[in-house]
Specification:
heterodimer, A: mainly alpha, two-stranded antiparallel sheet, 3 strands, B: mainly alpha, 6 helices
Chain lengths: 643, 202
């Protein structure tokens, strides 16, 4: 353009536009269209994040119900409530759903929602991939649960050891459902991880150098790298399993040169990092909650970040401790014992930093902090039994007993679910605009804390008394009856606590106290905009000068101007120092991620029944993906002249 | 933020696309390269693991025919030359050159796929024979999948660059596509050595 643009033609934010007009134009550019079509085609990371969170909690509830049925079955010896075959499906579905459909997805769900807000950008990187990821996750979960309803739910345990899960001992389609579910969830998780890494490294607000990033964002960044290097192992091994079962390969068939332990190595090369993939985001929750309620900046920022890296690296070096009961060289076992004990050091550093933050602050024991403190208590107990299990002689004694069940529930519920529930109380006002009820929250916390310990502490003793895991019943007179009944009572208390939680969420969404932008007076960027956030997140991209910008900029955040507001555009900054570099256009809503996910689902489900589905199914996938990437007409309006 | 937002600087002068690490697609491509590279590494690890359980390798069949694999190595390495030229044209944002380069790359990408058919025939085993056959087919299949997806991507991009959608920012798609092809090419070198040389060396 040769002439100067008129006022109306200026399509960028800045001092020349009044705030109301800026908001109105941004809303027009970024909003998701109303109605079903808009709902199906949205690429708004907040809508997708909320959906992801809600779906993960539904799977949490379903898997929890299965656990309750198992506890009812085990409440008394020789109970006939559940058949042995059904029981095998119950514990497999429980573990598979909790690990693959709840724990990892819910952490990625929070990342999807929060990371763009926390780093100060208007959208997650690759928002259509984000939509695709959600649909693939949802369809995988539906496939598994429909299979369960049709009595073809997997029954080989959540780690599906061969030869049990191989073609010889598991005819039918049950194990295939498990193997294919893994493919669905890993595609979803890998996609989100790439989005998070790129969002964190390239879309941070100007000035948010790496050493000013919230610890939560660090946790998600490190976790995403772990996902990238860990999850391919289970995708590859579950594909090898399905090939052994369907097309006659021999990867795990001893008679033809295969090996069963290959499965265990590959599974646990994923499976152990998986624990930290769940745990590190949870530590991010805790590192977000504790400083806000201690009313002071986090203690030991650098130590906490280094601890995340140390945990991630060590987490890849101890998978063999799951395999101590196999015939591996003793020297190798000693290495993995040492690594398993070493990983307690970074965890210890984190815990001391949190305690120091609380110690040096003025703690306010609202529900989020209660869950954070409950996490520290329960997780330390789980860590202690972990140190015990790292010792080979002890591990051999309690291998496959309830001691192990107790340990990993202390680590996983303690290490992930406690912080997660704290996170829900903490960020609920941001997601919904309303506060959760505080009294109900405290009732929830105490019932949950007590119920958890009553359920799982006796399992340590049951394990030491020799009760194996995964048995559908046990004879009377072994000394197990009382502790099993106690555990079932505890499970009932846990259930009641979660009903309180669900009711609190429901009533608070409808008529909770209105939250405002920053109800906890927190310091990070996600609290800078109204609750719930507008579609464009930030009216102006803020400039960040510290780790807690909202605490340190009393007069409001300074900002940069000049981003287009008539088109979706985000600011790209340099990876380390976050210097402004490029204005990157962002894609609009599209139905094609959903169609691509449907096409891929057809191919993956079909391939359980015939290998030809891979060939023919790839055609609709290719068409849908091409349509997804193909630019839509008319092309975007050209750049307006710079004023 | 209130009406009194303090604007520190104006960014309207920034470009709307950047090649390589300046853009997000490059980082996304690197993410997927890391994922797929991990898959290759793990498959190779499984190969050696299975090899360690056998007295001889291959256990009961001749090693794969060296000829087609080596022709493939030559063809695929040679494809780097037009690929690097395509990347340079993309960096220069020269639409005419980019179009020629992409047409060449579409054809050049099909050649390894053709050779690959003969490679499968020359493996001298089937995936159903034994674990050795299974892992060799798996690894070669994985690499073929990468060839297929990148050739598909190149074909779509080629067509795109002949339409009205060939805007300046599409040049970054061209350079990122070239980066990905480099990964497909360079990953073939160790895989070729594994499939064709390892059975002859041990």
């Amino acid at each position: 353009m040769n002439r100067m643009p008129s006022r109306d033609e200026i399509a960028r934010d800045g001092p020349w536009l009044d705030e109301a007009e800026t908001h109105r134009r941004l809303e027009r550019t970024w909003e998701t269209p109303k109605g079903l079509w808009g709902w199906l085609s949205t690429v708004d990371h907040k809508m997708i994040g909320r959906r992801y969170i809600a779906t993960a909690f539904i799977f949490f509830a379903l898997a929890g119900l299965l656990a309750l049925v198992m506890r009812l079955q085990l409440a008394a010896p020789e109970s006939g409530l559940v058949s042995p075959d059904r029981y095998n499906q119950l514990f497999t579905m429980h573990g598979t759903t909790m690990m693959f459909l709840f724990a990892v997805p819910v952490m990625e769900a929070f990342a999807t929602y929060l990371v763009p807000l926390m780093v100060g950008t208007r959208s997650i990187a690759f928002p259509r991939l984000n939509a695709f990821s959600y649909w693939i996750y949802l369809f995988g979960g539906i496939m598994l649960w429909v299979a369960f309803a049709l009595n073809i739910g997997p029954d080989v345990g959540w780690f599906a050891y061969v030869p049990l899960s191989g073609p010889q001992y598991s005819p039918g389609k049950r194990a295939d459902m498990w193997a294919q579910l893994v493919t669905f969830t890993e595609i979803a998780a890998l996609a989100v991880s790439v989005e998070i890494i790129v969002t964190v490294l390239k879309q941070r607000a100007p000035g948010m150098a790496l050493n000013r990033m919230p610890i939560f964002v660090w946790g998600q960044l490190v976790t995403s790298f772990m996902v990238i290097f860990a999850m391919p192992a289970v995708m590859l091994s579950s594909s090898m399993l399905i090939m052994d079962r369907l097309v006659g390969t021999h990867f795990f068939n001893k008679a033809e040169g295969g090996d069963a332990l290959l499965w265990q190595h590959m599974f646990w090369f994923f499976g152990h990092p998986e624990v930290y993939i769940i745990f590190l985001p949870a530590t991010g929750f805790v590192s977000s909650i504790i400083p806000v309620f201690a009313r002071r900046p986090i203690f030991g920022y650098t130590a906490l970040v280094l601890a995340l890296f140390a945990t991630a690296i060590l987490g890849f070096g101890l998978w063999v401790h799951h395999m101590f009961a196999t015939n591996l060289p003793h020297l190798g076992n000693s290495f993995y014992t040492a690594a398993s004990m070493t990983i307690a050091i970074p965890s210890g550093i984190q815990i001391f930093c949190w305690i120091a933050t609380l110690w040096g602050g003025r703690p306010r024991f609202d529900t989020p902090l209660l869950f954070a403190v409950g996490f520290v208590v329960v997780f330390v107990l789980g860590g202690l039994s972990g140190i015990m299990l790292a010792s080979v002689p002890l591990d051999l004694q309690v291998h496959d007993t309830y001691f192990v069940v107790a340990h990993f529930h202390y680590v996983l519920i303690g290490g992930a679910v406690f912080p997660l529930l704290g996170a829900v109380y903490f960020w609920f006002p941001k997601l919904t605009g309303r506060m959760l009820n505080e009294v109900a929250g405290k009732v929830h916390f105490w019932l949950f804390f007590i119920g958890f310990n009553v359920t799982f502490f006796p399992m340590h003793l049951l394990g030491l008394e020799g009760m194996p895991r995964r048995v559908y019943t046990y004879p009377p007179g072994l000394g197990w009856d009382g502790m099993n009944l106690t555990a079932t009572v505890g499970a009932s208390i846990l259930t009641i606590s979660l009903i309180v939680f669900a009711a609190n969420v429901w009533f608070s969404i409808v008529r909770g106290r209105v939250a405002g932008a920053n109800p906890w007076d927190a310091g990070t960027l996600e609290w800078a905009m109204p609750s719930p956030p507008p579609s464009y997140n930030f009216a102006h991209i803020p400039v960040v000068g510290s780790q807690d910008p909202l605490w340190d900029e009393a007069d409001g955040l300074p900002a940069v101007s000049g981003l287009r507001i008539d088109q979706r555009e985000v600011l790209l900054t340099t990876a380390v120092d976050a210097e402004p570099d490029v204005r990157e256009p962002m894609p609009k809503p599209s139905i094609w991620p959903l169609i691509s996910a449907l096409a891929l689902t057809g191919m993956l489900v079909g391939s359980i029944f015939t290998p030809w589905a891979v060939l023919w199914g790839s055609i609709p996938v290719a068409i849908a993906v091409t349509a997804w990437f193909w630019p839509k007409s008319p092309p975007d309006t050209p750049e307006p002249a710079i004023d | 933020m209130t009406a009194e937002t303090r604007f520190l600087t104006d960014l309207a002068h920034l470009p709307t696309h950047g090649h390589g690490p300046r853009g997000i697609t490059w980082w996304g491509t690197m993410g997927f390269v890391a994922i797929e590279g991990t898959v290759f590494v793990l498959a190779v690890a499984a190969y050696f693991y299975l090899m360690g359980h056998e007295q001889s390798w291959p256990p009961s069949q001749p090693p794969p025919d060296l000829m087609w694999g080596t022709i493939q190595l030559g063809a695929i390495l040679a494809s780097m030359i037009p690929n690097l030229w395509a990347r340079k044209a993309g960096l220069q944002e020269d639409l005419g050159k980019v179009r020629i380069a992409l047409v060449i790359m579409s054809v050049v990408g099909l050649i390894p796929l053709g050779i690959r058919i003969f490679e499968f025939y020359g493996l001298n085993c089937l995936w159903t024979d034994n674990a050795y056959g299974s892992i060799v087919w798996l690894i070669l299949g994985l690499h073929t999948l990468h060839l297929l997806t990148d050739v598909g991507d190149t074909l779509v991009l080629t067509v795109l660059m002949f339409t009205k959608h060939a805007e300046p920012r599409r040049f970054t798609d061209v350079t990122d596509n070239c980066t990905y092809w480099n990964f497909v090419v360079l990953s073939w070198v160790p895989i070729w050595a594994l499939i064709y040389l390892a059975p002859r060396v041990v």
